[in-house]
Amino acid sequence: MSGAPQAVRAWQRYEYHLALLLGTLLAAFDCPVLLGGYIGTHMDEKMLDSLRQAVQERSTFELDAQSIRLCRQTAYPAAAGAAMLYIRPFLSELA
User: Fold this and answer.
1) Distance (Å, whole) CA 52 – CA 68
2) Shortest CA distance to 55 belongs to which of 31, 30, 21, 13?
3) Res 2: pLDDT
4) How far apart are CA 45 and CA 23, in angstroms?
């Protein structure tokens, strides 16, 4: 990551704490985790790979860090995700 040293340090600290949180979520719920909002729409694959590696390094358990994904939905991502519970069954009936 390049940029102003202060911004790089801020990101590294944020990534450290985010990795701890994601490791806890993966261990507790054993399901895919979508990063949405500002973080999900502004991260690139290189940053995501770094975050996944940080999760693996900080975890006591064997976790599938590849199940951490970026959500690209910018408008009401939580509502869109909740709606998928109803949209998928409906679409499967059409096929």
Assistant:
1) 7
2) 21
3) 64
4) 19
Whether the predicted model's global pTM rises above the 0.70 cut: yes
DSSP the chain: --S-HHHHHHHHHHHHHHHHHHHHHHHHH-S-EEE-HHHHHH--HHHHHHHHHHHHHH-SS---GGGEEE----SSHHHHHHHHHHHHHHHHHH-
> Six-digit token pair at 66?
């590849």
Contact in structure between 79 and 44 (CB atoms under 8 Å): no
Is residue 53 within 8 Å of residue 65, measured between CB atoms?
yes
